[in-house]
C-alpha cells in the first residue's frame, strides 16, 4: 500500500510510515502492511536487520482514532497484531522522531532497539480517551521499571527524549539530521554478525522474559547446541584464527 514504504539496501530493510499529513496515524490496513513488510524481510535471506521510521514530523501518533470510532464493536486486534502480525526473527530498530504515542509507542516497544532524535515525545494518552493502553501496559514495566511505567500509563502525560533515555525507554538520543544514519549504522553493526546467532539470541531474549530461570537455561542449552554445531560457528572461529572477516551464511 502507498502508506507503508519498503526497501532493501544490502543487508538492511527499511520500513517507513508514509502518512505525514496525519502524523502517521495508523489504520488497521497500515498495521497489516507493516506485518507484511516484516514477513518480506523474514523471507529474504539477504536481509539481516530492519529499520522502521516515520515520515514528516512524527514516528506515529498511534491508531487513527477516526477509524477506531467508526467500529461498531470491540475486536481483539491488538493481541493478534503484536503476537502474530508483527512477529519477525530479524532484529528491528525503531528510528523515532516527533510524536511516538499510544499505539505508536506500542509499535516502538515491539522493536528490539529504540533510537530517537531530540524532537521525540512519548506518551500513553489512551486513558484520556477512555480506552486501554494494552500491549504497553504489559511490556513497559519490565522495560523501564514499575514506577516510571505507571507514571506514563496512568497520567497520559508526554515525556521528552532525554527523559526517555533516562528511564531506559530508548538507548540513544541524536540530532534530527543524524537519526536515520545512526539507526542504519546500528543495523550495519548487527548485520556483520552471524544471522543464526542473532536469530537465536533474539528468540532467547524474547521467550526467556516470560520463563522461569530454569526454563530459560534449558532453552539456552538447546539453542547453544544449534549454534555451536552450525556452519556459522565453524566459519567464525576459522575467521578469527585466520585474522579475517567472517563470511556468514546463516
Would you mind describing this structure in some detail?
It is a single chain. By secondary structure, this protein is an alpha/beta fold. The chain has two domains: 4-191, 2-enoyl-CoA Hydratase, Chain A, domain 1; 195-241, Lyase 2-enoyl-coa Hydratase, Chain  A, domain 2, CATH 1.10.12. The chain has twelve helices and ten strands. The protein has helices at 28-43, 65-70, 77-85, 103-110, 126-129, 134-144, 146-155, 161-167, 179-191, 195-208, 213-228, 231-241, and strands at residues 4-9, 12-17, 49-54, 58-60, 92-96, 99-101, 113-117, 121-123, 158-160, 172-174. The strands form two sheets. The chain has a six-stranded mixed β-sheet with strand order 1-2-3-5-7-10, sandwiched between helices. The chain has a four-stranded mixed β-sheet with strand order 4-6-8-9. Strand 1 (4-9) and strand 2 (12-17) form a beta hairpin. The longest helix has 16 residues, at 28-43.
- H/I helix tally: 12
Q: Which percent band covers the strand fraction?
A: 15-25%
What's the count of strands? Answer: 10
In the CATH hierarchy, what is the architecture of the largest domain at level 2?
Answer: Alpha-Beta Complex
**Average residue pLDDT:** 90
Biggest sheet strand order reads 1-2-3-5-7-10
Work out the count of structural domains: 2
CA(first)-CA(last) distance: 30 Å
Q: In CATH terms, what is the fold-level topology of the largest domain? A: 2-enoyl-CoA Hydratase, Chain A, domain 1
Identify the CATH class of the largest domain.
Alpha Beta
In one word, what is the shape?
globular
Q: Any idea what the CATH superfamily of the largest domain is called?
A: 2-enoyl-CoA Hydratase, Chain A, domain 1
Sheet/helix structural class: alpha/beta
Helix content: 40-55%
The largest β sheet comes out as: 6 strands, mixed
Low-confidence stretches: none
- H/E topology pattern: EEHEEHHEEHEEHHHEHEHHHH
What's the alpha carbon Rg, rounded to whole Å? Answer: 19 Å
State the oligomer.
Answer: single chain
Amino acid at each position: 500500500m502507498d502508506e507503508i514504504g519498503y526497501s532493501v539496501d544490502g543487508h538492511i530493510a527499511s520500513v517507513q510510515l508514509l502518512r505525514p499529513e496525519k502524523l502517521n496515524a495508523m489504520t488497521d490496513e497500515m498495521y497489516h502492511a507493516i506485518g507484511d513488510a516484516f514477513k518480506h524481510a523474514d523471507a529474504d535471506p539477504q536481509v539481516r536487520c530492519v529499520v522502521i521510521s516515520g515520515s514528516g514530523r512524527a514516528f506515529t501518533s498511534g491508531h487513527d482514532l477516526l477509524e477506531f470510532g467508526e467500529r461498531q464493536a470491540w475486536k481483539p486486534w491488538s493481541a493478534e497484531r503484536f503476537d502474530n502480525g508483527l512477529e519477525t526473527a530479524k532484529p528491528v530498530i525503531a528510528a523515532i522522531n516527533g510524536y511516538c504515542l499510544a499505539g505508536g509507542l506500542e509499535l516502538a516497544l515491539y522493536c528490539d532497539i529504540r533510537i530517537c532524535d531530540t524532537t521525540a515525545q512519548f506518551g500513553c494518552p489512551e486513558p484520556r480517551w477512555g480506552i486501554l493502553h494494552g500491549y504497553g501496559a504489559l511490556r513497559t514495566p519490565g522495560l523501564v521499571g514499575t514506577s516510571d511505567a505507571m507514571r506514563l500509563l496512568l497520567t497520559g502525560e508526554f515525556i521528552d527524549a532525554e527523559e526517555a533515555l533516562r528511564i531506559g525507554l530508548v538507548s540513544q538520543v541524536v540530532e534530527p539530521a543524524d537519526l536515520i544514519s545512526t539507526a542504519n549504522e546500528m543495523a550495519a553493526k548487527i548485520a556483520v554478525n552471524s544471522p543464526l546467532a542473532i536469530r537465536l539470541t533474539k528468540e532467547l531474549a524474547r521467550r526467556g522474559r516470560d520463563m522461569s530461570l530454569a526454563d530459560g537455561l534449558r532453552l539456552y542449552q538447546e539453542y547453544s547446541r544449534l549454534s555451536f554445531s552450525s556452519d556459522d560457528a565453524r566459519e567464525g572461529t576459522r575467521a578469527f584464527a585466520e585474522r579475517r572477516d567472517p563470511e556468514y551464511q546463516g
